[in-house]
């Protein structure tokens, strides 16, 4: 079975070298040398003032909401992983969904202002598949209405916009280091912010609300271990190679799909250095998607409906919002295998199957063609 995603693993002996030292120090957690070193290296690699290493990307968003003092309504996107919405709900805030742009799949900044009320306190937008939101327009709106801005940058590791890290935009950006990401720490996440007062608060919130043994605020345990940090230190040495390899595979997909108007790819804006975190395609309708997915599965190829369903349709929401573009695209989008355990021959095999299925669909609708 060709998996839709597979974690990159460094040479075992490199990881073992880090781990063997833990048997000597017995310092396994509580911000040891590996965690602090990883935070420094991430800050340098990503080009951000600070990057706090936490237990996962979901907790990272909860910490961000808490640190910014948000307690009411948060404008957000319906086209994201469920954690974007549940982080808002877990902090006892109300998500307000604004539809997306069909080109980039990110929140439509032109529709944000219509959803702002006196109870709106923040915007939590997702850089979908690592594709940047319109950060300048969102910043203008935030300044105009005195709103905080959080970016769910779970997929945006290493992405730059206008030659600077995408994580530098907004008040706080959060990122995921889950094992399926192009850079991972097995489980983990990061919080990046430019404001030093937020940095201090985030640091305290991460570890029970304590700073140097003093209880300064209510916090939680969002720390991560030396074992996870060790994996991150190993993987950071290979992340540029991983991105280059995924770029090659993405271009191999493109060389086939660019010939077909019925296979749509999200648009990457100008001035973006992309990280090739996923390879999504948008098909003509849900029936075609299901046909493609089933055919590929029978050939031993796993795909993922990512993101599905549109989050504004989740049953447990207290109120429903109509987001027609997100609802439509969520039914037609499919992520294809993209990782270092496949090669260009695999990509060509997958792409050719999809093209053949689409040709069959066309012939079934129009037998003359």
Automatic annotation (TrEMBL):
<dbReference type="InterPro" id="IPR000653">
    <property type="entry name" value="DegT/StrS_aminotransferase"/>
</dbReference>
<dbReference type="GO" id="GO:0008483">
    <property type="term" value="F:transaminase activity"/>
</dbReference>
<keyword id="KW-0032">Aminotransferase</keyword>
<protein>
    <submittedName>
        <fullName>DegT/DnrJ/EryC1/StrS family aminotransferase</fullName>
    </submittedName>
</protein>
<dbReference type="InterPro" id="IPR015421">
    <property type="entry name" value="PyrdxlP-dep_Trfase_major"/>
</dbReference>
<keyword id="KW-0663">Pyridoxal phosphate</keyword>
<keyword id="KW-0808">Transferase</keyword>
<dbReference type="InterPro" id="IPR015424">
    <property type="entry name" value="PyrdxlP-dep_Trfase"/>
</dbReference>
<dbReference type="Pfam" id="PF01041">
    <property type="entry name" value="DegT_DnrJ_EryC1"/>
</dbReference>
<comment type="similarity">
    <text>Belongs to the DegT/DnrJ/EryC1 family.</text>
</comment>
